[in-house]
Amino acid sequence: MRILKGIVPGVSRLARLQFELSKKARQNLKWFSYYQARGNNACLTCRHLDISPQTFYRWKRRYNPKYLASLADRSHHPKHLRQPTYSAELVEAVLRLREEGTLLYKLAAHLLYVILDILQTACFFLPPGSLPAPECVRATFP
């Protein structure tokens, strides 16, 4: 950048701009002004500003001195979202089957409960502990 008679080139163009830089963009602009003031020494700039060279070079690749908005953060939203590979009819069918399946599970659980109740009342099913344990299995404690 050349300074003639105390005027920075492009200052009038920058003054006409109607947008305000974000805090991050102003910080990045300070990085590049320090970088240019030190003779384009990236290693010295990274050490002085305590940033990694990878970060500095990423911003250097994006930086356009004629378009200061290039210093602003980009959107983190994905550019392309995956499109569903299934139809709406298939989704409805799966939801319907899930509801029917839930009802079937409830019905099966209820039937199992009723059958166990019948077996217990008919003495086909003895509750645990009603039969004595064999002597070899029973533990004896002093």
Chain-wise SSE layout:
Elements: H1 11-16, H2 23-37, H3 42-49, H4 53-62, H5 88-121
Report on this structure.
This protein is mainly alpha-helical and 142 residues long. The protein has a domain at 20-71. Helix content is 51%, strand content 0%. It has 5 helices and no strands. The protein has helices at 11-16, 23-37, 42-49, 53-62, 88-121. The radius of gyration is 38 Å and the shape is elongated. The N and C termini lie far apart (97 Å).
Sum up the overall morphology in one term: elongated
Give a quick account of the main beta sheet: strands, pairing sense, barrel closure: none
Helix content: 40-55%
What class would the helix/strand composition place it in? mainly alpha
The DSSP helix count reads: 5
Q: How many β strands by DSSP?
A: 0
Order of helices and strands: HHHHH
The stretches of 5 or more residues where confidence is low (pLDDT under 50) are none
Radius of gyration: 38 Å
Quote the distance from N terminus to C terminus.
97 Å
Summed up:
The chain is 51% helix and 0% strand. It is mainly α and 142 residues long.
Comma- or semicolon-separated keywords:
5 helices, elongated, 0% strand, mainly alpha, 142 residues
